[in-house]
Give the backbone structure.
Amino acid sequence: AQSVSQHNHHVILSEAASLELGCNYSYGGTVNLFWYVQYPGQHLQLLLKYFSGDPLVKGIKGFEAEFIKSKFSFNLRKPSVQWSDTAEYFCAVNEGEGYSTLTFGKGTMLLVSP
Amino acid sequence: DGGITQSPKYLFRKEGQNVTLSCEQNLNHDAMYWYRQDPGQGLRLIYYSQIVNDFQKGDIAEGYSVSREKKESFPLTVTSAQKNPTAFYLCASSIGTANGYTFGSGTRLTVV
């Protein structure tokens, strides 16, 4: 079974700081990769996804992520965070061939102080 | 607008009672899912259904049951056999596997 590891459970940053959230997965075959965000009191929303092509993918709200196959990683980045980015972030993966459900990491809670 | 509706938003039950959580979607998605979210645990898959009248157990199916009689609906029953039922329950749907899931707003179940 595949697994997803998110390196940090909690991250605290000041506004305008750069963000990088780590995500590693265990599956050795073709994968689809996702980052979801859950703002306080809101439902999970898709930030960005990768399933093929350019390994650097851009999502909503200025987020981007880079798929590095050799490292089994899909780290999320943002050059300059805002207070409104305070949320919980989840990395998720499923197998790229055939039918497969999403496996989620345990999440990283990001707190951005103004 | 298309989306997923979960009801109720908050639910309280006494220990030993079964309770059913509703999930309805009007996205015309074939697949539907139930996840449980606990602090520090991420999302864990309870059950999923790829098509009507068919469903499979996820990683933590014990103490739960589902049905999929209609494409739009995928109710989850939390039975008295579930040892730690207090949690936040999320329903999702998808079309294909490369597009990710659309999530509902969740139901917070508290068993006292």
